[in-house]
């Protein structure tokens, strides 16, 4: 039953976006909702605030893919406009809906925003960062597919020869950090007095370290070292099994 309902909702969203794209005229210049949306995408939340009343919560777009288009529908509710945003897509990629919002406004300000649909996929941020690293370093690397909690946000830093991937859960203040860098020393030289060795399902040896700020697991594969850390600020009991779960999912 749950799967059937998800299918119905998805088809409804796709139908709505198709009808909107065909039948809805573009935003009128000077419209407060139009000005708000365009300012939000081009200049960010701080400048977009000039078009909202102070207590409006602006929804977060958790994917870094650019927004390249909008369409709108009138609503049966007075002063409400249904706004559909679309992610920029590649030449051979299908168009993807970024969000569907119900935006309420008076003649001067946006007074409320209700999220009808959030099409962000934060793992696209991960995929782009990994591809960039592989291209620049001319090597293939492993990516995790299982985590000890749901992932709501992903960001990445690529500095010289090191890639840092941060997987977050906003509700749990959870953070999984995966650091990938070229191997520069033997794993044995990293072992401290209280550190322990574990063996992954692939047969790879991994070193567990319980450092002050995080639980950490380190292993090496081909020409890269992987350091997986889970922050101790996470509002969930974390054990070495959680780190092993992440590492095993990478093979």
SSE arrangement:
Elements: H1 2-23, H2 32-43, H3 45-48, E1 67-74, E2 80-87, E3 96-105, E4 110-118, H4 123-137, E5 153-159, E6 162-169, E7 174-182, E8 196-199, E9 205-211, E10 214-221, E11 224-231, H5 240-248
Antiparallel strand pairs: 1-2, 2-3, 3-4, 5-6, 6-7, 7-11, 8-9, 9-10, 10-11
Write up what this structure looks like.
By secondary structure, the protein is an alpha+beta fold. The protein has two domains: 2-118, Nuclear Transport Factor 2, Chain: A (Roll), CATH 3.10.450; 123-248, 3-Layer(aba) Sandwich (Protein Transport Mog1p, Chain A), CATH 3.40.1000. It contains five helices and eleven strands, in the order H-H-H-E-E-E-E-H-E-E-E-E-E-E-E-H. It has helices at residues 2-23, 32-43, 45-48, 123-137, 240-248, and strands spanning 67-74, 80-87, 96-105, 110-118, 153-159, 162-169, 174-182, 196-199, 205-211, 214-221, 224-231. The strands form two sheets. It has a seven-stranded antiparallel β-sheet with strand order 5-6-7-11-10-9-8, covered by helices on one side. A hairpin with a 2-residue loop joins strand 5 (153-159) and strand 6 (162-169). The longest helix is centred in the N-terminal third of the chain and has 22 residues, at 2-23. The radius of gyration is 23 Å and the shape is elongated. It starts with a helix and ends with a helix. Mean pLDDT is 89; it is low at 1-11 and 13-27.
